[in-house]
Amino acid sequence: MRQRRRKYGPWLWLIAVASLLLISRHTPLGQQVNLGIAPLLEAMSAPVEWWQEFSLWWRRSGQLQAELLRANNDLKKQAALLSELQVMREENRQMRRLLEARQIAGFQWHAAKISGRSPDEMSQRLIVFTEGAKPDDVVVTSDGLVGLVDEATPNHAAVRTILDAAVAVPVTVAGKSIAALVRGKGNTLQVAFVPWISAPEVGTILVTSGAGGEYPAGIPVARIVQVSQIPGDVFANIVAEPVSNWRRDSWLAIASRD
Amino acid sequence: MTTISILLLATIGILLNMNAAVTLLQPDWALALLTGTMLARRTTWRWVLPTLLFHDLALFWSATIFFPLAALIPPVLIYIDGQIGPALPQRMLMLFAVSLPLLGQGWSTMQWLLTLLLAVICWYILVLRFRYEQ
């Protein structure tokens, strides 16, 4: 028995590993794992939220006034309050701009709160808390496009951002007839199929063209940071960066087709 | 007991990596702990490798980042140990090789270095722990 185990053991192990790798290539196992651990991620950040709610509850009414009066004499407390105000203002600005984005017709919009990010430098994948999201729904911040929903459960969604190599976005420059494709390259974006003679300048904002019908037209996608010529090629080598900052923003909006 | 503790710590590490990706410059906690475990005792591969697969899927949505390289550690170590005798250099080399894909996944050099350093510390502590358990 032991000899047989020793003889066939490594082969069984090899077959198991190969099968696992094959399965993971053809099924969204990673996304499922992410959605599975989403409640754990929320549970991990719950104490912080409880503490914030608890402290807000105590600050209400008379205590808040007393605290404000004391804050006038206490520079440290004032600075803390000011920074808190700035955070609230920023959140308010994000929410208002998300509301503006909702005016695009043909889509239903849901708010989504980021509950987890992949730990690479630019966070190419996100886990968001939302309701009613479906695969291939479009995700945006107040500044522009974030990416697509890859997998979803009733309460969570795994989002693949535009920096992921698997995502390609048809783009154009507002007011021009350029049609190009933005592809993720890890930490930057590559803008493909732009002829060198009509290449836009550095700093130009690319917006979704609406071609293919996957993304609503007119959403800002990327800002061009580098344009160079490839000898012997008609197309320019264009590098861009996303206009939206999903590492800073905590609220996103998800657009589902009606 | 050590097994459960390591599995629990690796899971917390994965959650911490995803939860505080923006606020903290952090190493890949789970990778450091799991490679350190496998280097401390080769026979732990039976439960370390599936955990590493879970780690790959959770953080990178792919099973082909660290898992295939880590799966090579036990057979390669057995072979090299048989050829030149059990020693540190081959283990350091394996640790270096397994952690290298981190740089190709958009992680900063500092995060990679932190992961390497943490793996060495975990490896050292676990060698003592496993020796104590024996």
3D structure, described in words:
The complex is a heterodimer of chains A (258) and B (134). With 258 residues, chain A is of the alpha+beta class. Chain A contains 4 helices and 12 strands, in the order ααααββββββββββββ. In chain A, the strands form 2 sheets. Chain A has a 6-stranded antiparallel beta barrel with strand order 1-2-5-4-3-12. A 6-stranded antiparallel barrel of chain A has the order 6-7-8-11-10-9. In chain A, helix 3 packs across helix 4. Chain B is mainly α and 134 residues long. Chain B is built from 7 helices and no strands. The two termini of chain B are 13 Å apart. The model of chain B has no long low-confidence stretch (mean pLDDT 89).
Count of helix runs of chain B:
7
- DSSP summary: helix tally of chain A: 4
Which assembly state applies to the chains in this document? Answer: heterodimer
User: What percentage of amino acids of chain B are in beta strands?
Assistant: under 5%
Overall SS class of chain A = alpha+beta
Write down the overall mean pLDDT of chain A.
83
Largest interface: A-B, 33 and 31 residues
Instruction: Indicate the low-confidence ranges of chain A by residue numbers.
Output: none
Quick one: overall form of chain B?
Answer: globular
Keywords:
heterodimer; A: 258 residues; alpha+beta; 6-stranded antiparallel barrel; 4 helices; B: 134 residues; mainly alpha; 0% strand
Question: Topology, please?
Answer:
The complex is a heterodimer of chains A (258) and B (134).
Chain A: H1 2-26, H2 29-59, H3 61-73, H4 75-101, E1 107-117, E2 125-129, E3 138-140, E4 145-152, E5 156-161, E6 168-173, E7 180-184, E8 189-192, E9 205-208, E10 220-229, E11 236-242, E12 251-257
Antiparallel strand pairs in A: 1-2, 1-12, 2-5, 3-4, 3-12, 4-5, 6-7, 6-9, 7-8, 8-11, 9-10, 10-11
Chain B: H1 2-19, H2 29-40, H3 45-60, H4 67-84, H5 88-99, H6 101-104, H7 109-133
Summed up:
The complex is a heterodimer of chains A (258) and B (134). By secondary structure, chain A is an alpha+beta fold.
